[in-house]
Amino acid sequence: MRTDRDDLRQRLEAIAEELGDLALDALREAVEAGETTSPPEERRLTRARRAVEKAALLLADGDTAADD
């Protein structure tokens, strides 16, 4: 069972990294277009990345926050 949880955690970490890459791409495109504020797409992607990172953290070994 632990292996299943570890596999899921690793997949979540990979998804978080992909979301971060997409957010960076959105920022890069905004800068290239001359925008001076972060686009809504980047903010949504960043929020999604944080949520996925939190889920991965909750599955990590030794996490006591899930017991609260």
Describe the overall structure.
The protein has 68 residues and is mainly α. The chain has one domain (2-60). Helix content is 75%, strand content 0%. It has 2 helices and no strands. It has helices spanning 2-32, 40-59. The longest helix is centred in the first third of the chain and has 31 residues, at 2-32. The two termini are 21 Å apart. The mean pLDDT is 90.
Write the layout of secondary structure elements.
Layout: H1 2-32, H2 40-59
Number of helices: 2
> Structural class given helices, strands, pairing?
mainly alpha
Form type: elongated
Tell me the distance between the termini.
Answer: 21 Å
Largest sheet: none
Rg estimate, integer Å:
15 Å
The count of DSSP E runs of length 2 or more, i.e. the number of strands, is: 0
Q: What is the overall pLDDT average?
A: 90
Oligomer: single chain
The stretches of 5 or more residues where confidence is low (pLDDT under 50) are none
Helix content: over 70%
**Helix and strand sequence:** HH
Give a quick set of tags describing it.
elongated; mainly alpha; 2 helices; 68 residues
